[in-house]
Amino acid sequence: MLKYPSSIIDLINSFEMLPGVGKKTAERYAFYVLDYMRVEDVEEFANNLKVVKNSIKQCVLCGNLSETDICPICQDETRDKSVVLVVENARDVLSIEKLNEYNGVYHVLGGSISFSKGITANNLNIDSLINKVKNKEVKEIILATNATLEGETTARYIKELLSSYEDIKISRIAYGLPVGGDLLYADQMTLLKALEGRQEYK
Ligand SMILES: [Zn+2]
Predict the structure, then answer these.
(1) Could you tell me the distance, in angstroms and rounded to a whole number, from the CA of residue 68 to the centre of ligand 1?
(2) Ligand 1 centroid from CA 26, angstroms
(3) pTM value?
(4) Are 158 and 86 in contact (CB under 8 A)?
């Protein structure tokens, strides 16, 4: 059986690591690189992969992705640090930022509690959120985890942890977000309504 040279096979295998890319598509990408991409573009592509992996870290304050220790949002003097919107992933921050409506800061959990995937509260960035509340830096917490079982479980867990702090307002975005809804896939209008229509979380 005819086989591709090993470097082509390696490239195909690399593309196959990407979500949604099967063998056929990976082959198509590999041959696109070989036949159509200029050497400079390939080098830039490879370099971008390396740089993003090496230079992006988590903001020490909120867990958002950042090239600096403290992300631009946490550094921004005009943002209200007393309002913290809690999301599962850094990509959710982007979804909310696109609305241009929210002027508080964020707290990125890095996932949600999932019994099926074995993810517990200990695996998530929750302690530093509680510390912010303990230090009285926060007046309002908006729980914006996804409208899934895992997102609900996580919101409920955080709410319980914060139940002894009386002078803090806890709300949950809910309105308009379909059950099973992932923040990432909600359209902007739905997300805006969900944020505006947040309700006290009981
Ligand atoms: Zn930050």
Answers:
(1) 9
(2) 36
(3) 0.77
(4) yes
Per-residue model confidence as pLDDT tens digits over 76-115 = 999 999 999 999 999 999 999 998 989 999 999 999 999 8
**Of the candidates 181, 73, 202, the residue with the CA atom closest to the CA atom of residue 194:** 181
CA of 193 from ligand 1 middle (Å) equals: 24
Q: Reduced to 3 DSSP states, what percent helix, strand and coil does the chain have, rounded to the nearest 5? A: 45, 15, 40
Determine the distance separating the centroid of ligand 1 and the alpha carbon of 40, expressed in angstroms.
34
Among the four given CATH numbers 3.90.1150.10, 3.40.1360.10, 1.10.357.10, 3.40.50.300, the one describing domain 58-200: 3.40.1360.10
Q: What is the DSSP letter of 121?
A: G
Query: Is a pLDDT exceeding 70 seen at residue 129?
Result: yes
Superfamily name and number for 6-55:
RecR Domain 1 (1.10.8.420)
What pLDDT does 199 receive? 77
